[in-house]
Amino acid sequence: MSSKLTALLTHRKRELDATEETPEVTALPTAKRQKLKHHQQNFPPSFWDNLSRLWLTPRSLREFDRRTVWPNSPVHADFTGAEQFDPIKLVQSAKEGGPNLEDLRAYPSTKKPDVDREEAPNQTMSDIAAATSAYDPTFHQNMIDHGCLPRLYPSASQSVAQRPQNFDAIFARLETPRASSSALTMENFHHFLDQNTQAVTENKTMSSEIQTIAGVSTIPSLQDVLFNHLEPLIKVGKDALLSQPKVDLYDGNNPSDLATSVRNSLGDYIVPCEATDRPCLPNFFLEAKGKSGDSMVVMRQAWYAGCLGARGVHELRAWIDPETLEDKNAYTIACTYEAGTATLIIYTIHLRRSSNSHYRRISSMPTRRYEYRMSLMHSVSMIDNLASFSRGIRLYQNAREWAKEQRDQLCAAANRKVMSLKAVSASKLQGSEDELGMDGARG
Fold this sequence. Notes:
Elements: H1 3-21, H2 30-40, H3 45-49, H4 58-68, H5 87-95, H6 137-145, E1 148-149, H7 156-161, H8 167-174, H9 179-182, H10 186-198, H11 202-207, H12 209-214, E2 221-226, E3 235-236, E4 239-240, E5 246-253, H13 260-265, H14 267-270, E6 280-289, H15 295-320, E7 332-338, E8 343-353, E9 361-362, E10 365-381, H16 386-442
Parallel strand pairs: 1-10, 6-7
Antiparallel strand pairs: 2-5, 3-4, 5-6, 7-8, 8-10, 9-10
């Protein structure tokens, strides 16, 4: 502590002692004086500077006040501040709206947003917000407001009534016995329990438990991928309301499985990454959390990714044959896995026509509006016993294979249409050449 500060504190102490001896002031009792003195004293600055972690205490707050207090500027006794203003100019400025404050931080801009009036005729400034992620509570309402409806919305009975048309077929397909899950032993189960005990973080969960559940597979798949090439699912004008998703795991098809012309035409919906050599047409997703993860967040992440996948499948089906869009079937699966309880949940995401005028149009069908429906397919806690462990593996692996079957069928149908279009184009070209040859012969 500096000598000047020490002298100042000594002077103040003498003033305080002198005040206490003044007969006009009622002195505090001895116990209260000691308590007040104890309350006001603090540690020297060097004590605070050498702390590795600063706790929020009354002493630390007093030290903060001591370091941040600004001395008052001396003001002349007769100064009121009115001398700096011209009343005439002030009135004129007020009539013109006052000073421009747009350069101030957090001041709302007065510029009108570029809003798509056809899709959002009643959109106002208050409706436009910054892009949110699944960690933001407003994300949930943004999705619902734009026709992406979660499980059990708006009620359990209505949600169950609007399950996909092929729900029972998918359920039975996922329960199909597998040799890999039937051969599991107690030793495999105990190894999985050990992995679950150690899966504190999301990365650890993906590298241990999910690898055990997935087993050996040749399905094109990637982990921890940012979807940075897709058209925003929800936007106002040109502004996306949701941040780009980073998916823990997704399955797709190799780009070579789908004709180049189709990938180029529908790239904004079926090519998820700017690195176009990565799997395309994703329709299977997994979002996982470690033991400290948030159940609501992981559900929102799977919900968001599933809606993007379902939209891509819908766009491809519309390109192949628009007449098939009203089948109300699901072609997309989204899963969540939570390491704390080793709970695997499997959802389907499908589209269906909606009469709600506020829901988003699909680009391939601009005259129709669709809503995205999330339905619960299966839920199993894999640490209960060997049977639940085996069932979880069977459901997960069957779900991945079912999703691949849907992609393969769609890619084959799209490639057939490309070939037929080429054949028609070649036929027309040949016919034109024949006509030209005939005209030349007549001439």
